[in-house]
């Protein structure tokens, strides 16, 4: 696949993400409009992704040595994807946990200020989830490099 096709596909993927949401931001924000924008965004993104896969793998038959060299490349690529997913998902989970724990802690502290130490422990434990994910991603990256 030529470089021009790769650049075009990358631009199409980026546009399929941002164009529907910029159209959503311009008008009145309602729940049904948000759902419609999300559906259009999902359809455009995955549609572009399918077309990109079809264009990339258009029936070329690779030699045995090329397949062998690509096997290590695929393993490395999947390792990077795993590290990114570990970091991203653990940070999302930690953010959700901190949001609920911190709001409950603020409510408890406003009623009884002696609960500050106990409530900070729970908020810290929730932040630990994100840190553990980051440590695991560093371990994965250490195995790859």
Average pLDDT confidence is 79
- Under CATH at level 1, the class of the largest domain stands as Mainly Alpha
* Main sheet characteristics: none
- Range of strand content: under 5%
Structural class by helix and strand composition: mainly alpha
Helical content (DSSP H or I, runs of 4+)? over 70%
Count of folded domains: 2
**Over the alpha carbons, how many angstroms does the gyration radius reach?**
23 Å
Order of helices and strands: HHHH
CATH superfamily of the largest domain: F1F0 ATP synthase subunit C
Describe this structure in words.
- This protein has 145 residues and is mostly helical.
- The chain folds into 2 domains: 1-60; 64-145, F1F0 ATP synthase subunit C (F1FO ATP Synthase, Up-down Bundle), CATH 1.20.20.
- It is 88% helix and 0% strand.
- The protein contains 4 helices and no strands.
- The protein has helices at residues 3-26, 31-56, 64-111, 116-144.
- The longest helix has 48 residues, at 64-111.
- It is flat, with a radius of gyration of 23 Å.
């Amino acid at each position: 696949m030529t470089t021009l096709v790769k650049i075009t596909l990358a631009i199409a993927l980026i546009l399929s993400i941002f164009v529907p949401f910029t159209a959503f931001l311009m008008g009145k924000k309602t729940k049904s409009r948000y759902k419609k924008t999300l559906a259009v965004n999902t359809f455009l993104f995955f549609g572009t992704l399918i077309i990109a896969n079809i264009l990339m793998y258009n029936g070329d038959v690779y030699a045995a040595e090329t397949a062998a060299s690509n096997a290590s490349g695929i393993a490395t690529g999947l390792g990077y994807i795993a590290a990114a997913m570990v970091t991203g998902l653990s940070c999302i989970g930690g953010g959700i946990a901190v949001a609920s724990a911190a709001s409950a802690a603020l409510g408890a502290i406003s009623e009884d200020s002696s609960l500050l130490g106990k409530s900070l422990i729970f908020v810290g434990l929730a932040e630990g989830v994100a840190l553990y994910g980051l440590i695991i991603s560093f371990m994965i990256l250490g195995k790859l490099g």
